[in-house]
Amino acid sequence: SSSVLYLPVAHSSAKARKEALAVRPAPSLKRSACRSVPTAYPSPQCSKMLATRLGRVCAPRARHLSSNDLKFFAGVPEVTKEGVAIIRLDNKSQKMNTLSPALQDEAKMLWKELTAKHDVKAAVFISAKPDNFIAGADIGMLAAKKKAGEEDSLRTVCLSGHAMFDELKGSGVPFVAAIHGACLGGGLEWAMKCDSRIASTSPKTKLGLPEVKLGLLPGWGGTYALPKLVGLTEALPMILQGKEVRPDKAKKIGLVDAVCDPAALEALAVQTALSLSQGKKKQKKRSWMRWATEDVSFGRDFVFKKAKEQVDKSTRGKYPAAYEILNCVENGLGKKPSDAFAFEADAFVRLAKTNESSALIGLFDGITAAKKNPYPGTSKPSSVAVLGAGLMGAGIAQVSAEKGLSVALKDVSPEGLAKGVAYVAGNLDKKVKRRRMDAFKRNTIVSSITGYHDSDGGNAEAFAKKAQDLDVVIEAVFENLDLKHKVFGTVSGLVRDDCVLATNTSAIPIEKVAAGIDKPERVLGMHYFSPVPSMQLLEIIPHAGTNKESMSKAFSVGIKQGKTCIEVADVPGFYVNRALAPMMAEVAPLFEDGVTPKQLDEAILDLGMPVGPITLLDEVGADVGLHVQHTMLADSTMGSRMAGAKPEMLQHLVDQNWKGRKDGKGFFVYKGKKKEPHQPVLDYVEKSIKQRDAELTKEQIQDRYLSRFVNEALICLQEGILKSPADGDLGAVFGTGFLPFTGGPFRMIDAVGAQLYADKLSRLADEHGDHFAPAQLLLDHAKAGTKFHP
Q1: Which of 74, 164, 347, 689 has its CB 3.0 to 4.6 Å from that of 104, i.e. a possible disulfide?
Q2: What global pTM score does this model have?
Q3: CA torsion angle for 666, 671, 677, 681 (degrees, to 10)?
Q4: How far is it, in rounded angstroms, from Cα 61 to Cα 66?
Q5: pLDDT higher than threshold 70 for residue 44
């Protein structure tokens, strides 16, 4: 019959048909063949047998994972002949590996299939990324939970991470973390879940738990695991301050078991994993210090008492995360892991609901966004010149050379040049001493700075040749317009037409600098803050004629230097000094009302600022403060907002050579690292400035001082001096130390409420004058009920 045509051969007996089907399974049949199973055969037995056989052939097979299926791993893990699985972490959609529930799910699925197919004896986690192991948790996921009001669900996220690793470790095989690059936050917690940790000696490798900087705490067992590994005295600073440690230090404290060259990392990790699978693990001897500070109740109580005192002093109670961390670490001692993890997860949720965590995460997002050049271009600057080898110029040269830029450092004299190079070398020597850099790297950086000077033998011809290859020239000479024109005049004819000419002025309008220079469209401002190596902010200021190509190069250099760059309009003081000037102008009126220098500093420190206004004035220098004050008083656009400024007070300090730390005397007398009140200055304030004893409260002092900065920041945004509220927050926090736990003035207003802050300013204006009158932009937001950040 026609139905027999489905069979390749007809057989005369059921036995023959059965044998034929057994040895000829028709492997070429596809799943669609199941739809064409014959329904009529010479015998019912043949029909049943063939249908069964075809069904077995055509049934869907279990699908195995392929590299294309994986989003968080580089591919299907390889397994050595000894049974060591090498699992490569690789978030394919991002530069950095980050932890998320999706990664956890994929890890479980990958491990389940891996152990089903192979006899895995041990496993190594290693990153396929060139510069990070796991950089932490997915901040975007966390921010989305907060925005949706779903913070409570983060408890499950925290605990599910423990469950995931419990499932992996339930197989009974040892795990090794091979760490190269950033291993931070959840990345370090992942590594601490492993049985051993090996770190590469690369400068890119760093380990830490920085969650406190986001107003949070380690949510995946860090407050429990780190003290167990390294002891309380090492763990508490790392968690409370978010300190990062380098490989050598990590090995010394017991955070990692070995360090090696990056090229040997994988091989050593595989060897370690194999040894662990064979039961070869060396037990670490516990130090007497750990016994005294952890097992002895008196010692343990002393450690936590001192830690609490340090937290009180450094945070002034403004960072709730630090106190939750202390509670979690103390609670975890002697507890079983599951109880400690649950306690930690509950604390994580509480912190996730705070304004402080929202503000600090917002600040983190702003920093991340600032790493992208707003003027994308095709050219990548590689060579810069710095004119002037003083503290600012030498600092600019250092941060440029450290990041791989070729640097020409030029000064008027060989002595000035030598001091500048010595400044750079001294700063790098400190890094070598602290093991943040090796001697080879230090020497490489110093050698990348080529020095020139204007005296005889200053290599004028060599500089002229070098100038042809320069992408950006940055002048860092004294604040004198004629001098800046003269300095730029010596190089403008030597460099290419597309070379950017940047001035590091803090007050002179960029338009005036550009007016005396050929091809002014390449001129702009790059305002660094002192000391340059440690201050993160860079203001980039175009004048009306600056072209986009020059802005692109300036941002590229600033980002390359590791700076947080913001664009600011060309007005006196730019943004930071413009907003700072009215706030510093309020110092004299507070003195007039009977506030003492010590009382003012203490009130502002208690507010949460990193430094008080009196200490700030001594650090900057009374001469610099006087120059800025004169500049802002001369600016007619400031109106009454500089009211209260007393330049004669600063002039008196300058005339007496009491300019601050640079003179050894200011409001304080400086003796090495110590300082004490300078009585003659205190007497001057008491007799010549004070007019009344208003008996101001600490809160009144704080409101009057801080609100003048906030209001001026609002006006800067209102007048287009700032591009965005995010730039205003970054500039305030990284330029002046403005209350980091608030996220900056604009996030602070969002948290407080525009209407409440406008009401505060209106009350101050009624009591003290129109210079406190709220900015119109604030009133508009109060009326509309809108926020500066969505």
Answers
A1: 164
A2: 0.86
A3: -30
A4: 15
A5: no
